[in-house]
Amino acid sequence: MKPIVVLGSGLAGYTLVRELRKLDRDAAITLVSRDSGDYYSKPMLSNALAQGKTAESLVITVAAEMAKQLNFTLLQHTEVLGIERERKQLQTSAGVIAYGRLVLALGADPIRLPLQGDASDAVVSVNDLADYAKFRAAIESTTRVAKQIAIIGAGLIGCEFANDLASAGYVVTVIDPTAYPLSGLMPEQAGQQLLAPLAELGVTWRFGAAVKAVNKSSSGYALTLTDDSILHADLVLSAVGLRPRIELARKAGLTVNRGIVVDAQLRSSDTDIFALGDCAEIEGRTLPYVLPIMHAARALARVFAGEDMRVEFPAMPVVVKTPAHPVAVVPVARDAPGAWQVMANGHGIKLGFVDTQNQLRGFALTGAYAAERSEMAKQLSTK
Ligand SMILES: Cc1cc2nc3c(=O)[nH]c(=O)nc-3n(C[C@H](O)[C@H](O)[C@H](O)COP(=O)(O)OP(=O)(O)OC[C@H]3O[C@@H](n4cnc5c(N)ncnc54)[C@H](O)[C@@H]3O)c2cc1C
């Protein structure tokens, strides 16, 4: 029997293999990854520096040990180049592999802004262990005592890095064309709560301007902003979002949109090919977070075990790891009918999004109120 082949050794790939093994000890499973396949927690990448972590120390279990524990065939450092759906086989950098069922857990690529300047290639982003190793090496190679780091983007990852780097003693500037932090997730009243606590840590905010160009300068880099001001930095970190890896699926003729389109059984437009994690678009939604991946992996394992299972997502608050001012949010679509209401104020802010039927549809909790996220999630109406 041809194996279940899982492409990708991130949280999605590994959680699925773990869930499959709980239900079937003997199924043949092959895991293919273009990286080392070492198991680590990606959310740790944005708060590892203040803890002095190296890329090696973030590895929880090395790939060979994972393969032994979970009894799968490991093909590490192997890039999948194409999917031949009719023959049910993959073209890889290590030759051809046959599959019975195929799971795409390919993750997402950091979006690269089209920046001008002779140092635009020097802008780094951190999306995996290898990126983190390069990022650390780049920071360590600068000789200045108070190292200056410019972060492009005040979204979740930008804010988390800002908090972490400022706590570790770096001089941080965050640049974003919007008006306040986390503007893609929550309303201004909530986002503004982060301004002072992070500024106290040493973060300088630059809103209302985007980065246009990055050039080499005598002491590092000079960033030109859209308001023509110039900012100097020893390192430039881009945190402007991720784009699902859909190219392999698109070339193979699978239906893709923003992500690889799958139904509630995680099945793509080919009945033997499935997708989950950051690369997938599940019933119209991309959900690039840990909790949805766990739910999807559990559901897919049960589909493979022959159950008529469909993934259902409960309310899943997004937790922003900014210890200077914690945040938990269940976002709502910008055009959702209803209004944000202040439910409490004083130790941060507690906002609820109430729809036209007076039902709670989302919330934004900052500061001390972030601890109430589980309680608030129970009150959410999902109908
Ligand atoms: C800095 C940071 C902080 C985060 N913090 C949080 C948080 O606090 N809470 C939260 O819920 N979420 C957080 N997230 C999001 C969360 O970590 C991701 O949603 C999740 O880890 C994605 O897992 P994945 O397996 O889908 O993708 P990935 O971990 O990216 O794995 C993709 C895998 O596919 C492999 N691959 C890709 N292309 C090929 C190919 N052609 N051939 C072979 N292999 C290939 C890659 O090598 C990799 O092994 C954070 C993300 C980042 C970047």
How would you describe this protein?
This protein has helices at residues 11-23, 55-58, 63-70, 129-141, 156-167, 188-191, 195-201, 247-251, 290-304, 373-379; strands at residues 4-7, 29-32, 39-40, 59-61, 73-75, 80-84, 89-92, 95-98, 101-104, 108-110, 148-152, 171-176, 203-207, 211-217, 220-225, 230-233, 235-238, 242-244, 260-262, 273-275, 280-282, 318-320, 327-330, 339-345, 349-354, 360-366. It has 383 residues and is an alpha/beta fold. The chain has 3 domains: 4-109 and 242-304, 3-Layer(bba) Sandwich (FAD/NAD(P)-binding domain); 112-238, 3-Layer(bba) Sandwich (FAD/NAD(P)-binding domain); 326-379, Enolase-like, domain 1. A 5-stranded parallel β-sheet has the order 5-2-1-9-20, with helices on one face. A 5-stranded antiparallel β-sheet has the order 22-23-26-25-24, sandwiched between helices. A 4-stranded parallel β-sheet has the order 13-12-11-17. Helix 1 links the parallel strand 1 (4-7) and strand 2. Helix 1 runs parallel beside helix 9 (290-304). The two termini are 43 Å apart. The relative contact order is 0.13. Flavin-adenine dinucleotide is lined by residues 7-13, 32-35, 42-43, 45-46, 79-80, 105-107, 126-127, 157, 245, 248, 277-278, 288-291, 293, 321.
